[in-house]
Amino acid sequence: MKNRRDFLKKTAMAGAALTATPSFGFNILKKPMPEEEIIGHGDFKYKVHKDWAKMTVGHNPILNCHEMQMDSKGRLIMLGDHTDNNILVFDKSGKLLDYWGTRYPGGHGLTLHDEGGEDMLYIVDCGWFQDRNGKWTKQAGTVSKTTIDGRLLFMLPDPHTIGVYTPEEDYLPTETAVGPNGDIYVADGYGSDYILQFSPKGEFIRKWGGHNNTDENLNIRNAHGVAVDYRDPKNPVLIITSRATNSFKFFTLNGTYLKTITLPGAFVCRPVLDDTNMYSGVCWSRTREGKDYVRDTGFITILDGYNKVVSNPGGEAPLYTNGELQPMLQSEKAVFNHGHDVCVDEDKNVYVCQWNAHHTPPVKLQRV
User: Fold this and answer.
1) What's the predicted TM-score (pTM) here?
2) CATH code, 26-367
């Protein structure tokens, strides 16, 4: 097993999500802005509510808020990596309704899928976890399918056990998506950067991607997220995050490369589709001096139906020169630490989950 030093080396190359401290070369930036200010651009502006979550981290401890989904009852379900309560369930006022989960020390990816009128969860443990003494440990990642209240239905097989990976290839998955026929797509974002496709029953179908292809279009570098894009209902496609290259890559449901949308300067997490728009947390952005992976440089980015950036809440306004998007940076007044995921409700409010944000709960952005 590789040691922690090897993993940090990969982090510097691919932006893997580990708790960063100043001893790793990160710099604390500006103090967060006052809540009464409005952030965002164009038609996508928001009031910040950092005290939205009505809970205490003393009673319900948080390490990192990784991802959030809204279920059919309008409840907001958040996955984190603290095994006292991996799952926190909120209503839209921020009231904590429920909490559960002790088996996901590397809780990272959360997908909710309606299956015959019943909400199902796909929970990804990325394999990296931190004990109470601050020591990092790596174990094999897992993907679990559960009911909405956490009853385990099945786990997808580790690709090593079915002959899909070589012994030298890490399996540290970060995200899942469910296709129109129920096929399950797994992004191995902290491992070998493959996309693995399984049947609804968990049977392996194929894999593609990775980062060792001669055709750079096929390479995925830090395959942090995956989502099914239904904006063309007759032709759904996959959007894959290639976070280390500041881009989203589009593939068919069978893994054929289609195109790349580049978001210079923005180390984006998973794509979140809502109506014709696409949202994403930006875990890091480059500094004005050109440095990568600097602590507390995250924001949110929003793209329209033409995959053009229209707003960067917590970041500078998007700028296109001769049709080319210019590097995107955090705003002068910092709002976020590291945007890891967003959830959009029916009123177009945005709930932001943050990684490495001093054990704070999610933030609400109220659409104005």
Assistant:
1) 0.91
2) 2.120.10.30
